[in-house]
């Protein structure tokens, strides 16, 4: 009897902690959702020009929550490219998320189930990745899923609304909406950089290296996604080699 009561108490405690983590994820994702809606609204206008309906835009964003990947896909659709070229271009544009997924796997405790890992892997984005890695200690899947519950619909509804609006807005306003994404990036990376000088230096170095690669004769011919992958691997490997993170004692 006492063992059963103890097990039930542990389950109730775990459920309560999971709900708390999910609420915190939803709370932290509010600015992400707001930024997603504004930026994806401009993406929706591009979808309208490519001939997509509001519902098609909604499902495209819900199943492929990636601005660069969607822009690349829309460019291929507009050009009348075959399906295999569309799939290949989307894979290349989204390849950097493979690296983020590997990093997130190291933030998860070994006991996290495969189902939870698949749920997290469904929506790995720059902003949600930033929220996750800034979280101290191991990442609770409930926190990430809570953030997804707010961020993902915000992106999909934003594109749907943009498609419906079509070309009603002036171009200057559409261009202004695109700036929101970069402001959101800064909001994600600045707080952890203020706490860690090494991380701040690496971020500054990555900015400089990215700019250099965009103007150097050979490297500038590579796609933006390929340059991002190369820089991420090289800089992270150097940082891990020269300034490894000390493991905490169990």
Number of domains: 2
Please state the overall shape, judged from the principal axes of the Cα atoms: globular
Helix content: over 70%
Detail the poorly predicted runs: 1-6
Quaternary assembly: single chain
Number of strands: 0
Largest sheet: none
Describe this structure in a few short sentences.
The chain has 250 residues and is an all-alpha fold. The protein has helices spanning 2-28, 30-49, 54-63, 67-78, 83-93, 96-107, 114-122, 126-133, 141-165, 171-177, 179-195, 197-215, 224-242.
List the defining traits of the structure above.
disordered N terminus, single chain, globular, 13 helices, mainly alpha, 250 residues
Structure description:
This protein has 2 domains: 20-189, no CATH class; 193-250, no CATH class. Helix content is 78%, strand content 0%. By secondary structure, the protein is mainly α. Mean pLDDT is 80; it is low at 1-6. The radius of gyration is 20 Å and the shape is globular. Helix 2 (30-49) packs antiparallel against helix 11 (179-195). The longest helix has 27 residues, at 2-28.
